TrEMBL record:
<dbReference type="InterPro" id="IPR007197">
    <property type="entry name" value="rSAM"/>
</dbReference>
<dbReference type="InterPro" id="IPR058240">
    <property type="entry name" value="rSAM_sf"/>
</dbReference>
<dbReference type="GO" id="GO:0003824">
    <property type="term" value="F:catalytic activity"/>
</dbReference>
<dbReference type="Pfam" id="PF19864">
    <property type="entry name" value="Radical_SAM_N2"/>
</dbReference>
<dbReference type="InterPro" id="IPR023862">
    <property type="entry name" value="CHP03960_rSAM"/>
</dbReference>
<dbReference type="InterPro" id="IPR045784">
    <property type="entry name" value="Radical_SAM_N2"/>
</dbReference>
<dbReference type="Pfam" id="PF04055">
    <property type="entry name" value="Radical_SAM"/>
</dbReference>
<dbReference type="InterPro" id="IPR023404">
    <property type="entry name" value="rSAM_horseshoe"/>
</dbReference>
<dbReference type="GO" id="GO:0051536">
    <property type="term" value="F:iron-sulfur cluster binding"/>
</dbReference>
<dbReference type="InterPro" id="IPR006638">
    <property type="entry name" value="Elp3/MiaA/NifB-like_rSAM"/>
</dbReference>
<protein>
    <submittedName>
        <fullName>TIGR03960 family B12-binding radical SAM protein</fullName>
    </submittedName>
</protein>
<feature type="domain" description="Radical SAM core">
    <location>
        <begin position="255"/>
        <end position="490"/>
    </location>
</feature>
Length: 615
């Protein structure tokens, strides 16, 4: 039997076999019966990364609460495991029942970052599922994908049967019900896909044609049938308090990246940072009540035994009832040794005070994200924080005893100058001065300043912008590095080659799929891992497919250019994005829309959908 071979012959030979055995606390093991739907969630990275993803935790339990559905998990096998699987002819298998993935009805990938795309092809190949959607047979599973990167689905259009736009809890049951209905009627695979395309939020790329202009830009994307929607609207949960949230979460056997309870306090963000895709695509803000969250926390602590609860969202400090929630959680769990954590902190001294209350239970580092070194550039990107805000926040942090500070920056932003980069080093120096004011010296202090490279993302005000060349980004990294002095300041930065590829794929069209496939054929996988990343192979793939990567990464778009993602409707209008881009070039910031409506378009997106503060 496959299971016996895996357990007795394969796993003793690989690193961290717990990645592949399942059977964790709260994992679900259901007996498959005829007529049930088999769904496997596929995360295109290793177990430790995938098990930190909240979306899988939610949808896994939601689907398994259906009596007619079996939902299991699979993660990308690490290179040692893949080598043995290919040598021994072991197909990719699910964790719960060790069933070959090709035997499921659905294989559902989540698209969290572009540099995982070669892993998707590798997992399909290991499963024995044809890479190209057009080559799949009636018995092949439906390969579907969702998540933030799905908002530009075209680079994967060749490989995915259909994409799900928006929040999975809102649409996944409709997909399962439609599939069951189609199977009962004996419909073919092609007919099933056509039915799926009529579900709001579902995009079937094989039913849409992309054409190009002579200059290589996209001319349009049109459906092949008149009854198909011209635009695919994302699905949105209207009421978070009445939406599904699991009362149990799987507790892994091995350390994962986020090995704790993840309590999602709200979705969306109103800050409007102009580089931030998440801040645009997850609108509007919808909060859970603090009473609802407290009850969920009680159940999750009881069912998992975890000793830490992380309050997650895009900007947790903006939660309306943050103090009520935190103080009630502290009262509830302090005597039980359960700590509360916030993944990052808004630059505001008042929040440092709250954070200090949390850290009475457990103290760690504290993180702020000024993003840019000068006020001018922070206004361009609409960060809406000042240097005074930052200094007040770190002063409070040092007063409360913190000695480890992390500051996040981004380089290569539109309109950036060397003076803005100098400002990053100068901010670091001022943080040191504040520490000296509080403590008299720099003893014990560590300030880590980290700089990522700007990647223009679809559906943002900066989607028209060019990314700096790799040479220019590298020059900027060295410039900052040369200005930072002293052992208390550390400077780290991202690999510009990864940022370049991310920019190509994130704004790619269907032709980019040829590059992804070629790169995988030439051995690329786990591209976000330093030990596996091979930039030269990617460059060879571009050369062999005749695709110019600079066309996608380094070209500034005309304002009226048709984008490969224009047929995906996230609720925020293109007119709003253009307006915000113009304000960026004028150096004007835009208010947080919790204060008043800035007419981004989401307020009129769907009947019954309410923005923050609407009655």
């Amino acid at each position: 039997m496959l299971k016996d071979r895996i357990l007795n012959e394969i796993l003793p030979c690989v690193e961290k076999p717990a990645r592949y055995i399942g059977n964790e606390l709260n994992s679900v093991h259901k007996q498959y019966m005829d007529g049930m739907v088999r769904f496997v969630f596929a995360f295109p990275d290793i177990y430790e990364i995938g098990m930190s993803h909240l979306g899988i935790k939610i949808l896994y339990h939601l689907l398994n609460e259906r009596e007619d559905t079996v939902c299991e998990r699979v993660f990308a096998p690490w290179v040692d495991m893949e080598k043995i699987m290919r040598k021994e002819g072991i197909p990719l298998f699910s964790l719960e029942s060790m069933t070959p993935v090709r035997d499921f009805d659905f294989v559902g990938f989540t698209l969290q970052y572009e540099m995982s795309y070669t892993n998707i092809l590798n997992m399909l190949d290991l499963a024995g599922i044809p890479i190209n959607a057009a080559e799949r047979s009636e018995s092949s599973p439906l390969v579907i994908a969702g998540g933030p990167c799905a908002y530009n689905p075209e680079p994967l259009a060749q490989f995915v049967d259909f994409f799900v736009m928006g929040e999975g809890e809102e649409v996944i049951n409709e997909i399962i019900d439609t599939y069951k209905d189609c199977k009962d009627k004996g419909l073919s695979r092609k007919e099933i896909l056509h039915c799926m395309a009529h579900i709001d939020g579902v995009y079937v790329p094989s039913l849409y044609i992309m054409t190009y202009n002579e200059d290589g830009t996209v001319k349009n994307v049109k459906p092949v049938d008149v009854d198909l929607p011209l635009k695919i609207k994302k699905r949105v949960i209207k009421d978070m308090n009445n939406s599904y949230y699991p009362e149990k979460m799987i507790v892994p056997y091995l350390q994962t990246v986020h090995d704790r309870i993840m309590l999602e306090i709200f979705r969306g963000c109103t800050r409007g940072c102009r580089f931030c895709q998440a801040g645009m695509i997850y609108r509007p803000v919808r909060e859970r009540s603090w009473e609802n969250l407290l009850e969920l926390a009680r159940k999750l602590v009881s069912s998992t035994g975890y000793d830490e609860i992380s309050l997650v969202s895009l900007s947790s400090c903006d939660y309306t009832f943050l103090e009520e929630l935190i103080y009630s959680l502290i009262d509830e769990f302090k005597g039980k040794g359960v700590g509360i954590s916030l993944p990052s902190l808004r630059i505001d001294a008042a929040y440092v005070d709250i954070f200090n209350k949390i850290e009475e239970v457990r103290k760690s580092g504290i993180t702020f994200a000024p993003e840019a070194g000068s006020q001018r550039l922070r206004d361009v990107i609409n960060k809406n924080v000042t240097e005074e805000d930052l200094m007040n926040a770190v002063f409070s942090a040092f007063k409360f005893g913190w000695r480890t500070i992390k500051l996040y920056f981004m380089i290569g932003l539109p309109t950036e100058t060397d003076e803005d980069l100098d400002g990053i080093a100068e901010l670091g120096e001022r943080v040191l001065q504040v520490y000296k004011e509080v403590n008299g010296n720099l003893k014990g202090l560590t300030v880590t300043m980290s700089a990522s490279s700007f990647v223009p993302k679809p559906h943002t005000p900066f989607q028209w912008e060019a990314q700096d060349s790799m040479e220019e980004l590298y020059r900027k990294q060295l410039l900052i590095k040369s200005k930072i002095r002293g052992h208390a300041l550390r400077f780290t930065y991202h690999d510009v080659r990864l940022s370049f590829l991310e920019a190509v794929i994130s704004r790619g069209d269907r032709r980019v799929s040829m590059v992804i496939k070629k790169a995988w054929e030439k051995g690329c996988r786990f591209d976000s891992w330093n030990e596996c990343f091979n930039f030269e192979t990617w460059m060879d793939a571009f050369k062999e497919t005749g695709i110019d990567p600079a066309f996608y990464a380094n070209r500034k778009r005309e304002e009226n250019e048709v984008f490969p993602w224009d047929h995906i409707d996230v609720g925020v209008t293109k007119e709003f994005l253009k307006r915000e881009r113009r304000r960026a070039y004028e150096g004007k910031s835009t208010f947080d829309c919790r204060k008043f409506c800035i007419k981004c378009g989401i307020q009129d997106f769907e009947e019954g959908l309410k923005c923050y503060g609407q009655n």
